[in-house]
Amino acid sequence: MTAPAGATSFGLAGAALNASASCNVTVNVVAIANGNQVNTIPRSGGGGGAPGFYNAQTAAAIADAGATLFVGFPGPGALTAIPTLSETALALLAMLTVVVALGGRRGR
């Protein structure tokens, strides 16, 4: 399988499958926009440099291969709140830390 960095497509050549076999191809992609990104490999084509599936009998596949990937950020309801201290509690914690630090210095 070949695809230079920044390419908009990839190629797979010289692969073979037995009858009734299946093949999964996994690629890492970088999306250029949010939303649904649709990828389709046409059932016809192949051979002669045309995109699509091809077999030794030059018969087309039964259907297009396709997948839709949603790219984007989850909605606000999907995010988990991170518990934090209030400003008052944070100020009290800072004062307590100073008191403990000063108490530790006095013991020396």
* Count of discrete alpha- or pi-helical segments spanning 4 or more residues: 1
Largest sheet: 2 strands, antiparallel
User: How large is the share of residues in beta strands?
Assistant: 5-15%
Counting DSSP E segments of at least 2 residues, the number of strands comes to 2
The overall average pLDDT, rounded, is: 76
Helix proportion range:
10-25%
Straight-line distance between termini: 68 Å
Oligomer: single chain
* Shape descriptor: elongated
Low-confidence stretches: none
Radius of gyration (Å): 29 Å
Physical arrangement of strands within the biggest beta sheet: 1-2
Task: Please characterize this protein's 3D structure.
The chain has 108 residues and is α+β, with helices and mostly antiparallel strands. The protein has a domain at 1-73. It is 19% helix and 13% strand. It is built from one helix and two strands. It has one helix spanning 87-106, and strands spanning 35-41, 65-71. A two-stranded antiparallel sheet has the order 1-2.
Topology summary:
Elements lengths: L34 E7 L23 E7 L15 H20 L2
Antiparallel strand pairs: 1-2
Concise overview:
The chain has 108 residues and is of the alpha+beta class.
Keywords for this structure?
about 110 residues, alpha+beta, two-stranded antiparallel ribbon, 2 strands, about 15% strand
